[in-house]
Amino acid sequence: MTLALFGGSFNPPHKGHAALAQKALNALRPDRLIWMPSGDPPHKTLPPETPSSAHRLAMSRLAAEELFGVEVSDFELTGGARYTIDTVKALRALYKPDRLWLLMGQDMRESLDGWYKAAELKTLAEPFAVSRKTVPVSSTELRALLGRGLGQEWLPPAVWAYIRKEGLYGGSKP
Asked: How many Cβ atoms are within 10 Å of 7's Cβ, its own excluded?
């Protein structure tokens, strides 16, 4: 069995995230691709306007809807801060995969050596990095656009509708 893990704050999940997941599905053909929003990332503080983990989970599910073979997990949303290595160890214990890939953007790949227990992590999961060129906007830039009522072109339509409905990222509920 092969497994691919796609973790992140997904604040918000956008077309770049969906494109990365699709590229991994096409290139790696994993038996399972798990999209996993983080609850309380230990390596960074989420911005004050960050929607609740329940909202980010719901938006992640909407972003992944059109991707065949992707399941969205709430594993990291409970139990406080979790390092990637802890999640990878838990997934290895649960699924016992022959191969496990860790999906990330190229920018994250470049910082991987600075991650908590990076050397051990790289023995347990193979990095699979994709360039951001397909969707050149970051989540940080997208949040700023959304705060000004812009940026919906970078979001899956269902995610944009959810953001509007819930009044997230500085928007008001219709």
From this structure: 22
Rounded to whole angstroms, the Cα distance separating 137 from 96 reads 35
pTM for this prediction:
0.92
In the chain (174 residues long), the average pLDDT of successive 10-residue segments reads 95 94 96 93 82 96 94 87 90 97 89 93 95 82 93 96 94 64
Bridge partners (DSSP) of residue 126 are 101
**Taking Cα atoms as reference points, which of 128, 109, 120 lies closest to residue 28?**
128
The alpha carbon torsion through 90, 94, 95, 97 (nearest 10 deg) reads: 50
**Contacts within 8 Å (CB) and 24+ apart, 105-114:** 105/16, 105/20, 105/129, 105/130, 105/131, 105/132, 106/130, 106/131, 106/132, 107/132
What are the tokens at 102? 């860790």
